[in-house]
Amino acid sequence: MKASKQKKIEAAGWKVGSASEFLELSDAEEMLVNMKLSLAANVKTMRQQVKMTQQELAKRIGSSQSRVAKMEVADGSVSMELFVRSLASLGVSRSQIGKIVGARVVKRNRATTGL
Amino acid sequence: MKASKQKKIEAAGWKVGSASEFLELSDAEEMLVNMKLSLAANVKTMRQQVKMTQQELAKRIGSSQSRVAKMEVADGSVSMELFVRSLASLGVSRSQIGKIVGARVVKRNRATTGL
DNA sequence: CCATTATATGTCATATTCGACATAATGTCA
DNA sequence: TGACATTATGTCGAATATGACATATAATGG
Fold it and tell me: Right CATH number for B15-104 from 1.10.260.40, 3.30.460.80, 3.40.630.30, 1.10.630.10?
């Protein structure tokens, strides 16, 4: 893993082992981070699509506004379980969640989104 | 949620809230359980495909044989993170993991598997 | 501008998940 | 059968994720 990439990841609150023993793991960790980035982005957009506030979603999933906020900024302390629970509570189907997990988020510009 | 279904889930070591306040959550919980069942089955078959022992996979992911065993029987104490880490360490790509998450496991009989 | 609402960030006690270990159960093969 | 490898199950202290809360920082619109 490149140092620059690791620094970026750690800056976002992620822990990355660097001992040689864990070199294979770093790929898995990076994958996990990217999955969570994708999940986070989708939780946010889905919630907004339903015009729900973080507070409301929090209540729905039995959590708190602060935790929902951490989810949406892909804080390192949020588990995949919470992402999945949230998406499910937003009406996202299992197969849709599978796609979110499997594909990188593409940040589109205003020209393509039409906004 | 039907009582029979909940009983089955709880028998497998899962905790399911039953207060009316959490009725919407139970669907999400069931989805999570099914995802983990799918992930568990795939960890097992992929590991066997590479002719790896639980002990060896455990070492690869910095865990223990007992935890790998729990993974493969879809024990309730195993997080999605660990499933993903394991699959990644077994060489499964992100898009493949997405498919595993998104689609129910189909248990095939001997006629179709050829065994 | 101010007031109000929504979102982000930090901390903390509690709950959950962790690897490790012992040991039981199952499988394998001679 | 017995010896050996592999997998399953239970438990425990340590590590991590949790909801709750306070509070900071936007964002909204009047």
Answer: 1.10.260.40
